Structure formats: structure tokens, C-alpha cells
Amino acid sequence: MDKLNNQIVIDRLQEQFGEQVRIVAEPHGLLTVATEAMSILDVLAFVKDDVALRFNYLTDITAVHYPNEERDFCVVYHVHNLLQNLRLRIKVFISGPTPTIPSATPLWNGANWMERETYDFFGVVFEGHPDLRRILNMDELEVFPMRKEYPLEDPNRVDKKDFYFGR
Amino acid sequence: MSKPITKITPNAAVFFDNDPQDELITLNIGPTHPATHGVFQNVVQIDGERIVSGVSTIGYIHRAFEKIAEHRPFYQITPLTDRLNYCSSPINNMGWHMTVEKLLDIELPKRVQYMRVIVMELARIADHIICNGILGVDTGAFSGFLYVMQEREFIYEIFEEICGARLTTNIGRIGGFERDFNEIAFHKIEEFLKRFPPVLKEFENLFVRNRIFIERTSGVAAVTPETALSYSWSGPILRATGVDYDVRATAPYSSYEEFEFDVPVGTNGDVYDRFMVRNDEMWQSLRIIEQALEKIKKEPAGVFHADVPDFYLPPKEQVYTNMEALIYHFKIVMGEWETPKSEVYHAVEGANGELGFYLIHDGGRTPYRLHFRRPSFVNYQMFAPMSSGMLISDAIINMSSLNVIAGELDA
What keywords are annotated for this sequence in UniProt (chain A) (predicted)? Predict the structure, then answer.
């Protein structure tokens, strides 16, 4: 079998999905593709099970907040082909008051907590997740703290006013 | 021998509905239970000694590192990484430095890379000592823990000699080390190579063919490779199931490709195999350190950082006397350095598995987004579902063999 490389991955993905999968970039050799929320499960299932690709190891799921963009949330998946040692990054840009994307838990059990963490910090709702609750923050928290508009320190604190520190 | 776990129901959301007759006992293990070795909670339903179902609650020491990192320049993020897996902070520090160096395209001199390898392998030994020692304590063998703890102390002395700190080391800088290893440090590393093997051998003899230890651990919490991969396990616990995935071997960083070492794998994926994999990894780490010391001798002496004045702070005494050094110092401290817009994922083999740094940089003074792929967090999610049907005492040693470090779990 030929050594799997980024070009083969691009060809396979475009053959299967055509316009649905866009090739974004290859920063530091890691192929990055983007797709839509409605087709993400198909893409993930395809790269996981396709005999040529076999990205069967889910490394990470996380999100990024771009408040100035039209579609302001980006969910990022890192998958890894352990046999051929190639990584692939898949991005999905979504928006809306409650950004929603299908859950990857049917494909990987390990997606469970990664998606809970992403929900906890960004408020991205993973549809079909068996147990979508907050994981690191307290249940009563009403904000999603990793969104850019949320300040690092609580602005309502009275014990850290600047004049106490001579500023 | 119990059957390997092949299928697991997802996180027990039905926890409180499955006991209409109120016959089961609900038990809190944690948040500050001695058996958890860290601050996290498991609420389990038990039927006698057997666990029926359980729910993990984590986040007790969540410190919002990812948020803080968005407000700090690169070199101030290193102390945050210390506090992820605080049993082997140098690996986290090096992983972060290498992520930034990958972003900035900085190539390090070979000698610096070997120095890093030594520090990382020492940290790995220190971490595995803790995990295996504690596993012994949890199975009722206390003395082994005490034997090796002295050696861990010695590793911390080496760290102290290299960087001045012991636990949260903040070791090295972006582009190399802040100073060269001194004579005493080299001497101590060599001494460690001499004094540690007999101790490790003795430690091994206490456990490896110990009937009680085997009875307690063999076949306990056995996991198939398919399940482990599906749960994105990595590190020694994945290798104990028979999958030979080690970042040092598959995607070598810091010149690991030049070293000769084996990747130990297990066959059953049970607690005993995890112990053995960690134990063998310590021997391999010793091998690597030996080779690294030999290699360092062949490199030009006194080189301890790359020549990147834009990112590496000049020596302090020059800052007061030399105009150029002052300018660089000012630019670095004020964050006036030119950095490319890019994104990087860099993974290192932490003591618990694949420790990844996903850095998105927009060219500003601080990262736009930094995500830690923390092996403890990913590995631990299987604990509650896999505990169903297990004896409490087995679940406890299963937990200690996963080597969950609360700091890494919660970030």
C-alpha cells in the first residue's frame, strides 16, 4: 500500500463529497478541510471507515469563537490515522444564538467528554449527545466563559477596584 | 479472570432512575477521598461490594487556563503548563516550547534537543514512579512506594540544579534553556543512572511475580484495543491493550528518532499490564538518557539555546550595558515581536499519553486560542462506565492505574 499523504486524502474527499468539503490550508503539514454542519457526520464517518483513509482515532474536539465573523463559531476536529501516522483537521463554521452541530458520539465514545467540554465553554449544542451537561464549570453558571465577549475577570467584583491598587 | 470489557453503555444518565425499590446504596468516592489521589468525585451506586453504576464529577480545580492563556504572551504561558500534570511538568513545558518553536520555525541546536530529551525522560520516570508506587499502595504493598520515592526526590534535585525549581519547574525557554546544565547537574544525572537501576530492580522484584499483586491486578479492568481506541485512550494504558502508539516513535520531536528505544506493549489491557508497561518504560527512559548523555559529549559544549535574538531573552548583564540587548529585551518583554498568523497542533508523549497543544495565532501578543489536549481528561471518561459491575476495591486500583492527575483533568 502506498504511503498515505495529504494529496490522497484530498482526492478521496473530493471524489466522495465534491463541493461539500473545502480544502482550507496545510499549516505545518497538517491538512485542514472545512465542511458544513449538516454533512459533518458523513465526513467523519467516511474518513473513519474508508479503507484508504482510516482516520480511526479521534484526537480532539474543540471550538473557536470568532465574534467578528458572520459565522462566529468554529468546531475543530482532529483525527489521526495511527497506522500511517497522518493527521487531519476538520473545521465546521456555525452560527446562531445556539450554534448546533450533530454529535460525533455515535462514531467515537471518546467524543462524549470532548463535546461536553466544548458545550461547557462555548455553548455549542451537540445534537444527539447522550448526556450534554456542563463538565468543568459549575452547573449554575449562566454564561459560556470561553466566548470572547466574556471578560477574564468578573467585572462585578468590588474588591478589585483599580483605586485600591493605586491605578 | 473476568471477561474483557468490549461494550460499554455511554455515561450513566439513568443513574437515579434504576433503583425504584431503594435497595442500592449511593456512595461518594471523593472529592477528597484518599483513594482518588486528587480532587474529583465519583458517585457510585453499590449493591454490596459491587458497583452498579457511577457518575464522575470533575472540575473541582478548574482554573480556566485556556482563558488565561488568551491574555498572556507565550513565555508567560509556560507556568500554566506546569500545573497541568504537575507530576511531570517538564514534559508539559517542553511541549509548549516546541509548539511555539514550530509556529515560529525555530530550529534548535542538537545539543539543546538532547538536553530536552534528558529532562523529559527524567520527568517521565518521576511520573511513572508515582503511578506504580501508588498502585502498590492501593493494592496493599506500601514499602515499594517508599523505596522509589527517594529516587523521585533525587530527580527533583536534578531539576533543582537545572532550573532552580522542583515541582512546578517552568524549565527552559522558547528557543532553548535559560542556562546551561552545570557540572553538578551532569554529575547528578550520571549518578542517577548508576543508583536508580538497582532500586527499580528491587521495586520490580516486589511486584512482578508477587502472587498477591498478580491476584489483585491481573484481569482487573481489562480493556480491548477496540474499546480503548474508541475512547481515544493514549499513553501507557493504551499500549497496555496492545496498541503500539507512542508519539515519540510515530511523530518524533526533539530528535527522538536518533535514539534507540523500545515501545513496550501489553496484551490484556488490565491493571497488571499497565503496571508492566510503565515499569518497562522506565527502563527505556534510562536507556534514552544514557544515549543522550553520550550524544551531548560529541556536541560543541556550552550551547544551550538557539540563536534567535527576536524571541530569546538576552543575558541580563548585557541588557544594562549593551544597546542591542536592551532593545531585544524591551521588544520581547513588551510583546513587540513579529509572529506569523498560523495554527499549530503539536503533540508530545506525556507521561499519561498524547499531550497536545492546539494553538491558533492571529499575529497578536497573545494566542488567539490555545487548547490543551489533556490525556488525563480524555482517558478518564471511560472510568465511570467501565466501573459498572466491578468490585469497589477493583475500581480503586483501576483508578490509580489510569494515573489521573487532577490538574491535567481540569486544566
Answer: Cell membrane, Membrane, NAD, Quinone, Translocase, Transport
The tens digit of pLDDT for each residue in B190-208 reads 999 999 999 999 999 999 9
Interatomic CA distance for residues B289 and B286, integer angstroms: 5
What CATH number is associated with residue B262? 1.10.645.10
Model pLDDT for residues B354-372, shown as the tens digit of each residue: 999 999 999 888 899 999 9
Taking contacts as CB-CB distances below 8 angstroms, the residues of chain B near A62 are 358, 371
A&B contacts, CB < 8 Å:
93
Overall number of domains in chain B: 1
Interface test with A, best of B15, B369, B370 (most A CBs within 10 A): B369
Q: Answer yes or no: is the ipTM higher than 0.85.
A: yes
Closest by Cα among A99, A103, A94 to A128: A103
Any idea which residue has 472510568 for its cell? B383
Chosen for mutation from B17, B237, B345 (greatest number of chain A CBs closer than 10 Å) is B345
**CA distance readout (Å), B200 to B142, B185, B249:** 15, 21, 24
DSSP assignment letter at A158: S
Which cell goes with B399? 483508578
Identify whether the C-beta of residue B38 lies closer than 8 Å to the C-beta of residue B409: yes
What is the extent of the structural domain holding B339? Answer: 65-410
| B345 domain-assigned | yes
| Cis amide leading into A67 (omega within 30) | no
Nearest CA in chain B to A149: B67
| Whether this model's pTM surpasses 0.90 | yes
Q: A61: nearest CA in chain B?
A: B373
* CA–CA dist B140, B227 (Å, integer): 29
User: Three-state SS for B39?
Assistant: coil
CATH number of the CATH domain containing A129: 3.30.460.80
DSSP state letter for A93: E
Grid cell in block for residue B36: 482518588
What's the order of all strands across the beta sheet hosting A22-25? A22-25, A31-35, A86-94, A73-81, A57-65
| A54 Ramachandran zone, left/alpha/beta (phi>0; psi -120 to 50) | left
